Automatic annotation (TrEMBL):
Keywords: Hydrolase, Pyridine nucleotide biosynthesis, Pyridoxal phosphate. This is Kynureninase. One of its GO terms (cellular component) is cytoplasm. Its EC number is 3.7.1.3. GO terms for molecular function: kynureninase activity; pyridoxal phosphate binding.
Amino acid sequence: MTDRKEGYFLYHSIGQYPGKEADLSKAMAELASVWSAPDDQQWSYMLGKRAEFIDLWRALIDARERSTTTCENVTQGVHMLLTSLPADRLRGRTVLVAADCFPSNHFLLSRLQERFGFDLKTVHPRQGASWVADDDMIAEWDSDVALALVTWVSSTTSHKTNLENLATHGRAMGSLIGVDITQAAGLLPFSVEEPEIDFAVSTSLKWMCGTPGAGMLYVHPNLIAECRPELRGWFSQDNPFNWDIDAFDYAPDIRRFDNGTPAILPAAATVPALKWHATIDTRALLHHNRLLCDIVIEGTDELGLTLLTPRNEQERGGSLMIDLTSEGIASKTLATLNAAGFSADIRGTILRLSPGIQTTEEATRELVNLLGKSLSGR
């Protein structure tokens, strides 16, 4: 059986929305036409698309003008920020991160600690727990923490941190506070002002339904003034057309984080998804997700499976992670779901399900029934 739109449970990976293929095809055809025309209108069009991408992201996260820019991905965004800080910001101090962060971020931080002279402190889940509790983060978060990279929603359990509590504590400790919002951006409401944070990073995938390579970096205006990005180029200047090689000066705003000619194609390809998202009822989308998640949780309990995601909806994102006890059972179960047209994935023994706008209640109940049949002989 072919994949069914109503059985799509992969919003933790690649988001889909009604009309996405047509929107993307139209946008790419228009871009191809403009870029291939024998005139000089290409750059005004392309830079306009990039600006539109940035403005749509700014509106989503409640960010001020000239505080948000593009990057390729979250890892690159974090690197851009950390390597731009004054030398004394991190040296001899601590960078704090949870063990259930996205692994790519940890790979980066563990490599940078030697170069920048900070101690990377990784907070692990307490014994028997599936996620890092906020209290455990706070217990390790003292005045020696120069910067904390907080994962808003974990990709491994869908646990959602209480940002207000963590930010309040971080401010009291005098730390810089960064947040990776990737796993819930577009589903849960988020503002860089409430609570106030120093920087945020995200991709445009998952609930945002965009394309790869369309990352976002937000930096608080007060912090921007301190930053001197090491990767700099003609777009880092207030006037990109300054050709005096001895007269470089950083732009006074987020543009200083730009460097050479920007990669505009991912942003342009994502604009249709961002425009679609800006028109939908996000409260209705979240209600729909919660309803379908409740159906799956009820089915999980009836089947005697272990739910690795918080049951309280205020403490989770939009995904559910279910432990199927062995990799063999997990692989068999996924194959059964795929054969019936359902889109989901596994990580080791864990089945990951994320119902979104295209997923239906009927399909969700069918998935639960199919899950039970697949596991009946385990």
